[in-house]
Amino acid sequence: MTTELVIAHTDPVLKTEFATEMLRQMNAIDSYGTYEGWAPEKILDPYMMTKERRREIPIVGDPDDIIIARVKAFYNAIASMIERECGKMAVPMVHLSHEGFGRAIITVGKLVVMDRTLRDVHRFGFPTLGKMKDEADKLLSVALEIIGKYPEAADL
Predict the structure, then answer these.
(1) Which candidate, 138, 93, 134, 102, places its Cα nearest to that of 121?
(2) How many Cα atoms sit within 13 Å of 91 on the Cβ side?
(3) Partners of 117 in beta bridges
(4) Among 13, 78, 123, 150, which residue carries the largest CB count within 10 Å?
(5) Following CA atoms 134, 120, 100, 128 in sequence, which dihedral angle do they give, to the nearest 10 degrees?
(6) Burial letters for 1-13: b for 16+ Cβ neighbours within 10 Å, e otherwise?
């Protein structure tokens, strides 16, 4: 896989709350201290799936533990942001088959506020950091809208 970084160290998205939370989640899964001293753009770079990088990955493949941890970190970050915004505990759950198919959901109380079908997880990623943030913002706003619409279920 191409080792050239896709994210510039001057990318304004790196200064956002979303990027800060993603870095927090990535450091949380780094049990061996591999990311110690790494720049934020280097830590988040594996999420960038440019056309060139996508071409290098086979169409059919099984995700490894690192990719699965990366997917979980993304949805954990969204759950953490939901929690910060609404003040209620948000619980992410990611269930994947060994072939990389499954589902990611986030619940708040008894309410499902996010439900995503996952496919081809071995190719999980976003073209740019901005697109990754846009996707997270979209999921966050929909989740907060659902919580606002059904506050009783979210409080259970």
Answers:
(1) 102
(2) 8
(3) 103
(4) 78
(5) -30
(6) eeeeebbeeebeb
From the list 112, 74, 78, the residue with the least C-alpha distance to 96 is 74
Q: Is the pLDDT of residue 155 over 80?
A: yes
Tokens of 141: 């706003």
Contact 32, 24 (CB under 8 A): no
- The amino acid present at 150, given as its one-letter code, is Y
**Maximum separation of any 2 CA atoms in the chain, in Å:** 49
Residues 6+ apart with CB under 8 A from 93: 104, 105, 106, 107
DSSP per position, 6-45: -S-TT-GGGGSHHHHHHHHHHHHT-TT-TTTT--HHHHHG
Q: State the Rg of the chain over Cα.
A: 16
pLDDT given for residue 147 in this prediction: 97
What is the pLDDT at residue 3?
Answer: 67
Q: What are the pLDDT digits (tens) for 125-146?
A: 999 999 999 999 999 999 999 9
CA distance 149 to 130: 28
The pLDDT assigned to 2 comes to 52
